[in-house]
Design brief:
Elements: H1 10-32, H2 34-53, H3 56-61, E1 65-73, E2 82-89, H4 91-114, H5 121-140, H6 144-162, H7 173-176, H8 187-216, H9 221-225, H10 234-251, H11 260-263, H12 269-278, H13 280-300, H14 305-330, H15 336-359, H16 365-396, H17 412-426, H18 433-448, H19 451-476, H20 482-489, H21 499-517, H22 519-534, H23 555-582, H24 588-594, H25 596-606, H26 611-657, H27 665-688
Length: 689
């Protein structure tokens, strides 16, 4: 595949310029009128969507573009004396840009109803548009340096939007705090936690980028993929690859940096939908997909197969373990948005699993396409789930599922939309996009002979089905909670969301159903597009190292085995949850009392596998203690005391010296004469010397 460089693809540039312009103009539009501000913000996100949609015909035509303009000139620099800004228009960027822009626009429309009346809407619209613009800049960038501007932009916006209700009011406990007991955090804490945790991953990302730049001489994706990566010595390439992966681990909340994302639920539900479906968390998966060709080239063309293959295995195992661990946490969470947050981490793990497996085998297509397809599929149904959850929270005035129950007759549109989106998350066969994309993810390790990874991914299907049905059961079935009864006594009744809220999530559900019904066609089309896009990675006749080529199931057999096991795992997870939380055949507490080991396991998982507490006890609290010690011993004990000593000495000298200024004329004349004498003596000594 070759990129066309002569044609300037202006929609690729305007796609991220429009929302950033909208962010800048938001405060000015607010001066005109609040409605001008609100609808103006949505117009700019709509323009971004129009620009990305206009790129889709290039997918059908098989035309891909790479545009550059001169950005910075640095004369005498050892590398990158001319820094170029550019966009890259290919299948990966087109698909990802449309995920961001289309879902981002629907979330902006939904915000008109959900955020109505909030006193800080100017700040909200500014950061939402800036978020969308930064993500599109990230996706469209043709080099790592430019990508970092978007990368850090989404990090900044996530901090501002997760902590949007930064006053941390105790009255907002049911609205925007996260967690219970010792792990209950206010919005400002959660925003800072997301910012610091993702910065840890970004530090490693920067170090890896610097290593590549020092030896490859470029950070342009097209140039690296075209062969520049082969200039990097193997001893540098392996640590550079691992360090680069630190960025996706942080942004996409993979182990061990996953604990920020569940607590990001302190932000408005619209923010949760944007971060967890369309933008920030997908940035890490996108980056792995973007650097995949260049590292794959190094593995299979550069003679580094036996060494670099470990890098892809690490990605696959990190994804598989993250998918299971996060999914298990979703099985016991009592907060509806937090269940979806754990689900997001789990599904991102699936995507990482697929991309890692793709790099570890010569048959890369199923894994790579499965990862990208699942990213797109997940974005649709997870955005729908968050928006429906927001509608439920909006009317029930609580984030806890134990405060809901029995509301499906009052919110039929929300109930059916959430149910259908949850079916896609579970991977219910044939009618939902999640079935086709998830099965492609699971096919990849089976084809590659990585049976333990396949087994862990299959078990996670059962886990996903359990927490999905449990969420629906606790939210919509059973009797009304005492919380709702209390609300009704005060005149507040459960009601369906307004049109401006349910139309966006209905559109997303229709999308996931459409991709599900057309699943075989979409799957085949994706494979054809990416086969052309990545087709030049393997030389004619194959070029892979037989030393690392592991062969698993034949393709046709893998498809059927995956489908059969996937359906079996779906039933294994969904049926117990159905009888426990929908039909209410048995009280879960009674079930746990009967089987004590399950109660112990539940408590362990409820405590988030103690991963969160470990970070606080091993890193956060020691750092706070160290800072307090430094404040007391160094700042107050040394620096502050020295400042006081210096100030007192200066004041004492000043008080002593001021006595020489009596204000008497004769004393002043004597001082002048003495000064002249000293001056002439010094002058005489200088001349004699």
């Amino acid at each position: 595949m070759e990129y066309i460089t002569e044609i300037f693809v202006w929609p690729a540039w305007l796609s991220w310029i429009f929302p950033m312009l909208g962010a800048v103009l938001t405060p000015l539009l607010a001066k005109v009128h609040s409605k001008v501000r609100d609808y103006g913000a949505i117009v700019f996100s709509f323009l971004a969507m129009v620009m990305t949609l206009s790129l889709i015909p290039y997918l059908w035509e098989g035309k891909y573009f790479h545009n550059q303009v001169l950005w910075v000139v640095m004369e005498g620099a050892p590398v990158l004396s001319r820094l170029m800004a550019g966009v890259i228009v290919d299948p990966l960027s087109i698909i990802m840009a449309n995920v961001v822009a289309v879902i981002g626009f629907l979330i902006m429309v939904y915000s008109l109803g959900y955020m109505h009346g909030d006193p800080s809407l100017t700040r909200y619209w500014f950061f939402m548009n800036f978020f969308i613009g930064s993500m599109l800049l990230l996706v469209m960038s043709d080099n790592i340096i430019q990508l970092l501007f978007g990368w850090e932009g989404v990090g900044l916006c996530s901090y501002a939007l997760i902590g949007f209700w930064h006053r941390d009011s105790k009255e907002d406990w049911l609205k925007c705090w996260v967690g219970e007991g010792p792990e209950a955090y206010p919005p400002s804490h959660c925003g800072m936690k997301a910012f610091i945790t993702t910065r840890m991953g970004d530090l490693f990302f920067l170090l890896g980028a610097f290593l590549l730049l020092a030896f490859a001489g470029t950070l342009n994706f097209v140039e690296l993929q075209g062969g520049a990566i082969l200039r990097v010595p193997l001893a540098v390439l392996i640590p550079a690859a691992i360090l680069l992966f630190g960025g996706p681990i942080g942004k996409s909340a993979q182990l061990p940096l996953m604990e920020w994302l569940p607590d990001a639920m302190a932000g408005p539900t619209t923010v949760s939908a944007l971060i967890h479906a369309a933008t920030m968390v997908n940035a890490g998966v996108y980056l792995v997909g973007r650097v995949f060709p260049m590292f794959y080239t190094a593995v299979w063309h550069g003679g580094a197969a036996n060494e670099l293959i470990t890098f892809f295995y690490v990605i696959a195992w990190v994804g598989a373990i993250t998918a299971f661990v996060a999914g298990s946490q979703g099985m016991v969470s009592s907060e509806i948005k937090k269940v979806l947050a754990y689900s997001t981490v789990s599904q991102l793990g699936y995507m990482m699993l697929a991309l890692g497996i793709a790099g570890s085998t010569a048959e890369f297509l199923v894994g790579y396409v499965g990862g990208v397809f699942h990213l797109m599929s997940h974005a649709m149904f997870k955005a729908a789930l968050f928006l429906t959850a927001g509608a439920v929270i909006h009317t029930c005035e609580s984030r806890f599922m134990t405060h809901m129950g029995g509301i499906r007759r009052y919110m039929p549109i929300t109930f059916w939309c959430m149910s259908l989106a949850a079916f896609s998350l579970m991977g219910v066969p044939l009618l939902f996009s999640g079935f086709w994309s998830k099965d492609m993810v699971l096919e990849a390790p089976l084809l590659a002979g990585q049976y333990w990874i396949f087994a862990l991914g299959a078990v996670t299907v059962a886990v996903t089905s359990f927490y999905s049905v449990r969420m629906l059961g606790l939210t919509f079935f059973g009797p009304k909670s005492s919380h709702l009864a209390e609300q009704e006594r005060h005149g507040h009744h459960v009601h369906e969301a307004p049109k401006v809220m349910w139309i966006p999530f209905l559109a997303l559900v229709i999308g996931t159903l459409a991709f599900g019904v057309m699943g075989p066609f979409v799957k085949g089309w994706f494979e054809g597009v990416f086969h052309e896009y990545l087709g030049e990675l393997l030389p004619a006749g194959g070029g892979h190292s037989e030393a690392v080529a592991v062969h698993g199931f034949p393709h046709e057999l893998a498809v059927w085995v995956t489908a059969g096991i996937s359906v079996a795992m779906l039933l294994a997870g969904a049926l117990p949850a159905y009888f426990l939380y929908v039909k209410r055949k048995l009280e879960p507490s009674v079930f746990l009392q009967r089987y004590g080991l399950l109660a112990v396991l539940r408590q362990f998982v409820l405590n988030r596998w103690y991963i969160n507490r470990f970070f606080y006890k091993a890193i956060v609290y020691p750092m706070i203690g160290g800072c307090m010690w430094a404040l007391k011993k160094i700042e107050l004990g040394v620096i502050d005391r020295f400042n006081y000593v210096l100030a007192n000495a200066t004041a004492g000298f000043s008080n002593s010296f001021r006595k020489t200024h009596s204000g008497i004329l004769t004393h002043n004349v004597e001082g002048i004469i003495l000064g002249f004498v000293v001056f002439f003596l010094l002058l005489a000594l200088t001349v004699m010397g």
